[in-house]
Design goal:
heterotrimer; A mainly alpha; B mainly alpha; C mainly alpha; A: two-stranded antiparallel ribbon; 10 helices; C: Helix Hairpins; elongated; membrane (chain A); CPA3_antiporter_subunitB (chain A); transmembrane (chain A)
């Protein structure tokens, strides 16, 4: 199909979709209106359960099953990254130290900042996870902070240090077990906002580390052997 | 009990992912297969219970008070429970097939298959639209990974990427639709929204229906949302194709049907004709594309497109008898198509290629796969008493009553085209008929590591059981009655809402349905008779000159260009919306 | 003007699709896909907005205080996680396409037949 034909199909489609959407949008309740029956029910339920952060209550209690699905998505995609970005037959993987990926020649100030920020960032991550039922934040937000904290080492130019600090099998196991416990909590229990927050924090943190590990390996360590290079076009 | 069917495979998947690397491969196989077997038994029990009275479970104990709840229900009516059972059975077949298969990557393959089962079961059983979106995404994410599993092959990763981008785009359009519905009804449950839709603005409801259905129609590979399907099926590992073609694609149609009857019934008058239009085009285009393929898995993939079009057409009649027919058709199709994919997998294992011409005559000694292709071809043609025939007969009768005289011929043409293509493969590969062809020299992975000296029974038994079962389905009267009872409940919106929101009674009067009508038998025979010339003419090399420009254009449209697919998707939403408003 | 926020969500959706259709780079396609998903965040959050409402966290306001709809916020949170993971996976596939095919321009990729 030529560019023009494709664009023509798109223009027709977009025009139709736009008309449909505008038709519907003008029939929605006014922006900022008062009609939120489910929201009000969620607030009442959360207060009855003494969870002050209503969003956490919805995520981990009232609609916990959604979050079970979401945790499994996270889990599956970490597995997926392991599968899709594995070193395949025609490739080989180098050792982290082999190619001079660090410690790189950077300013001491940068390195010190990275080392100093690492524990602080980890602490903030734990804090965000632990207070998810009380204040804005929770397992997802905190987990992301935890997962990225380790990568401060990469930013300081020390990839081998990062490599030492993240034993991949441990993270895989940690992630899997967190997902497993979460499934049990989500399907069996009710009102377990605090432990579920913790599990999500663990799961998200591990998943982020795993996925980023795989991308780092692809970018830095995996080399395609010249002889067997994939068929180009 | 219902929760356990979702939790059990998910938990075992988690354990396998964490510890599978230290377990010997046979143990991993045994654990995975055993788990799915347990889930199968469990879902059998759920189905038995659901046949007496549909099971509603509010997760976390958030039962509704005064007709509203803050929680999420799982609803196992016989249709949902039966479909979940089908998921489990096909996963079982796929896992048995993979015992000697795919020797790579720890136990992650098994973990993904188990998660896939859990995701599909949850998607089928949930009674909440947003939750359905979440599990739709879970199902999709796992499907992308499984498609791209053989990551060392360029076509594999390309196909998986196209699949991922288009499916996700569809899902996000669905989420926009969910947003519109939430804004108007302030609810997310199918039942809770359905109870509040009457009296809402017609335009908004129609647009919301169009958007919500988009993701599901992408999954169902309705034209013009179908482009991803062949790209993904042609490259996915064989056991994964079994699940994709056998049930995952059909779940898209199920979701459209569930959303319609639980929520939108009566509120979108154009739904029937609009879905029927898509169904007809899908059935015919899928059939034509199927005939044009020479890669066996790709051919089977387009045949799935065509048959799902027929199922969509059956649903579009919006009538319980037709829905029962569609469900029965789905069942028959699942058996036949899974068996065919498995047989194709054995070919790939033997000859490292799936190019039909290159395989010319090379399957003469493979008796079981050959028999599966023959039986499968006849089953797809709608030969009585196959499940496809019985379902088609019920659908045709219902369409006749609705005045849709054209539905029966469309079904016959679709069956003849797809069955003709499969029979052509049988003639060429297993009988050596027709001129032998030149190869393309593109060799694919055998999926087993070293080639096997002979095919193990674990690879053949699932195909025999599935194909054999599917072609006699039309004889099992009790099953036909069960399915028509399930369809009767499925289309009863008031019963659904009452059962979910207030624990009320959900009974449906359903007269027993019989596929053995004169018209039905004639239709089945016509499919078989017409499939023969399609097969024989297909053995001749060139397409007739008259048709060649059209054929070239069709091929060019299925280009593998992801931007093009996205453009078609947009046009598809617009078209579907237009049909909903005008029909 | 009270419907403008809803229209903004639609605009973002269409802009994302435009990017996907015209893109010459698969990584760009994947990012445009997450642009289309951003449309869903905007739509959900605008639907949940209440004039004068604050965040639905009752640690420092009275239980009777006026808050925005927490359900859409929970949905958006779920949605964001879905987006992040799907994007990661699709980028992984794009990396592999680049390695196997030697290009990530959809126009240059050979058809899959």
């Amino acid at each position: 199909m030529s560019h023009r034909a494709r664009f023509a199909v798109f223009v027709i489609g977009v025009a139709g979709l736009a008309v449909l959407y505008v038709l519907a949008a003008f029939r929605l309740p006014d922006f900022g209106g008062r009609f939120h029956p489910y929201g009000e029910r969620a607030v009442t339920s959360a207060i009855a359960e003494r969870t002050k952060n209503v969003v956490s209550s919805v995520n981990f209690d009232q609609r916990a099953f959604d979050t079970v699905g979401e945790e499994l998505i996270l889990f599956a995609s970490a597995l997926g990254a392991v599968v899709l970005l594995r070193t395949v037959r025609r490739e080989r993987e180098e050792e982290a130290g082999e190619h001079g990926y660090g410690p790189a020649d950077v300013f001491d100030a940068l390195r010190l900042t990275g080392y100093a920020l690492l524990p602080v960032t980890l602490l903030i991550g734990v804090y965000i996870v632990a207070h998810g039922h009380l204040s804005p934040g929770g397992g997802f937000q905190g987990g992301v902070v935890l997962g990225t904290a380790l990568h401060l080492l990469y930013l300081t130019g020390d990839y081998p240090a990062l490599d030492r600090l993240r034993p991949v099998p441990a993270f895989e196991a940690g992630e899997a077990l967190a997902a497993g416990v979460f499934v049990i909590l989500g399907l069996a229990g009710a009102g377990l906002v605090i432990p579920m927050n913790a599990m999500v924090g663990l799961e998200v943190g591990c998943a982020i580390v795993l996925v980023l590990t795989k991308f780092f390996e692809q970018a830095l360590l995996v080399r395609t052997d010249e002889a067997g290079k994939g068929e180009g076009t | 009990m219902v929760q356990a069917a979702i939790a059990a495979p998910a938990l075992v998947a988690v354990l396998l992912a964490a510890g599978g690397r230290w377990l010997p491969r046979p143990l991993v196989d045994a654990v995975a297969t055993g788990t799915v077997l347990a889930v199968t038994v469990l879902l059998g029990a759920v189905l038995a219970a659901a046949l007496r009275h549909p099971v509603v479970a509010w997760l976390g104990g958030w039962r509704p008070r005064g007709g509203v709840s803050a929680g999420i229900p799982l609803v196992a009516d016989p249709m949902a429970a039966g479909l979940a059972l089908l998921v489990a059975v096909l996963t079982l077949a796929a896992l048995v097939f993979s015992w000697r298969y795919l020797v790579e990557v720890q136990a992650i393959y098994h973990a993904l298959m188990l998660l896939f089962t859990a995701a599909m079961c949850a998607f089928v059983l949930t009674g909440d639209l947003f939750d359905a979106f979440v599990f739709f995404e879970l199902m999709s994410v796992i499907a992308y990974v499984l498609t791209g599993y053989k990551a060392e092959e360029p076509r594999t990763v390309h196909g998986a990427l196209n699949f991922g981008v288009i499916n996700s785009l569809g899902a996000y359009v669905t989420l926009m639709g969910i947003g519109l519905l939430y804004a108007r009804t302030g609810q997310l449950g199918f039942a809770a929204m359905g109870a509040r839709l009457p009296g809402q603005d017609h335009r908004l409801v129609t647009v919301a229906f169009a958007l919500v259905c988009t993701g599901f129609l992408v999954k169902a590979a309705a034209v013009p949302f179908h482009f991803w399907l062949a790209d993904a099926h042609a490259v996915a590992p064989t056991p994964v194709c079994v699940l994709f073609s056998g049930v995952m694609v059909e779940l898209g149609v199920y979701a459209v049907a569930r959303t319609y009857w639980a929520t939108f019934a009566g509120a979108v008058p154009g739904a029937g004709p609009a879905l029927a239009s898509l169904g007809v085009v899908t059935a015919l285009l899928g059939g034509v594309m199927c005939v044009l393929q020479r890669h066996v898995k790709r051919l089977l993939a387009y045949s799935t497109v065509s048959h799902v079009g027929v199922i969509l057409l059956g649903v579009a009649a919006l009538d319980h008898a037709s829905l029962a027919g569609a469900a029965y058709y789905l069942l028959g199709h699942a058996g036949v198509k899974s068996a065919l994919f498995i047989a194709a997998g054995t070919l790939l294992n033997r000859f490292e290629t799936l190019d039909e011409r290159e395989l010319h005559g090379r399957g003469r000694r493979m008796r079981v796969p050959g028999a599966v292709f023959l039986i499968g071809g006849l089953g797809l043609a709608g030969m009585p008493p196959s499940g496809l025939w019985a379902g088609k007969s019920l659908m045709d009768e219902a369409a006749e009553r609705a005045g849709w005289w054209w539905a029966a011929p469309v079904g016959v043409v679709a069956s003849a085209l797809t069955a003709g293509a499969v029979l052509r493969v049988w003639l060429r590969v297993f009988r050596g008929v027709g001129p032998s062809g030149e190869g393309t020299d593109e060799h694919e992975d055998t999926e087993t590591g070293p080639r096997m000296s002979r095919l193990p029974w674990t690879m053949l038994a699932p195909a025999i059981v599935l194909a054999g079962g599917a072609v006699v389905l039309g004889l099992i009267t009790g099953l036909i009655h069960g399915v028509s009872h399930a369809a009767g409940l499925f289309v009863d919106q008031r019963g659904y809402v009452a059962a979910v929101l207030s624990g009320g009674a959900w009974h449906a009067a359903s007269e027993p349905l019989h596929p053995w009508t004169a018209a039905g038998v004639i239709g089945g025979a016509a499919g078989v008779v017409l499939a023969v010339p399609v097969a024989v003419l297909g053995l001749r090399r060139p397409a007739p000159r008259l048709l060649r420009p059209a054929v070239d254009r069709l091929r060019a449209a299925h280009s593998g260009h992801v931007g093009e697919y996205a453009a078609w998707l947009t046009a598809g939403v617009a078209l579907f919306g237009l049909l909903l408003f005008t029909a | 003007m009270s419907h403008l926020p809803y229209l903004a969500a639609g605009w973002i959706l269409l802009a994302g699709i435009f990017g996907m259709v015209t893109s010459r780079n698969l990584v760009h396609v994947v990012v445009c896909l997450s642009v289309t998903q951003s449309a869903t965040y905007v739509l959900l959050l605008t639907i949940g907005y209440r004039k004068g409402g604050t965040a639905p966290v009752f640690s420092d306001i009275k239980p009777t205080g006026k808050v925005v709809d927490p359900v859409v916020q929970a949905m958006a949170l779920t949605d964001i996680v879905v987006n992040a993971t799907v994007t990661a996976l699709l980028l992984a596939l794009a990396v592999q396409v680049a390695k196997r095919r030697g290009t990530i321009d959809p126009d240059q990729l050979r058809p899959l037949e």
